[in-house]
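USER:
Class, as today's exercise, take the chain set out below, and explain how the chain folds.
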Amino acid sequence: MSVEKILLDHGIKPTSQRMKVGMVLLPKPRHMSADQILKTLREAGNRISKATVYNTLNLFSRSGVVREIAIDPAHLVYDSTICPHHHFYNPDTNELTDFDSPGLSISGLPEPPEGMEQESVDLIIRIRSVC
């Protein structure tokens, strides 16, 4: 599916700046921070501001084009795979890896407050090399 079609299907006008950000992040499954996307765009000769990249990623996230993943409060990445899945995170390499877990069951979760229901659970398992 083309980046333009993905944006249109999510009600987003495919401006040139949005298309540029989308072309970096959307063609294949990947996890990238806003700074990584900005660096990739600038290295390719694109003139784009940091604010434009952040605003575009926020729009993509709000519209369901990407998932925003908070590795920690100061480290956000954007995931082009929006179907439910979980992640391994290696802080030594900053690598975030998808894993599918159809049989995963998490017990002992607290009940949501009255009038609320659980929407989803995002699991990030932190890993380290043992060598």
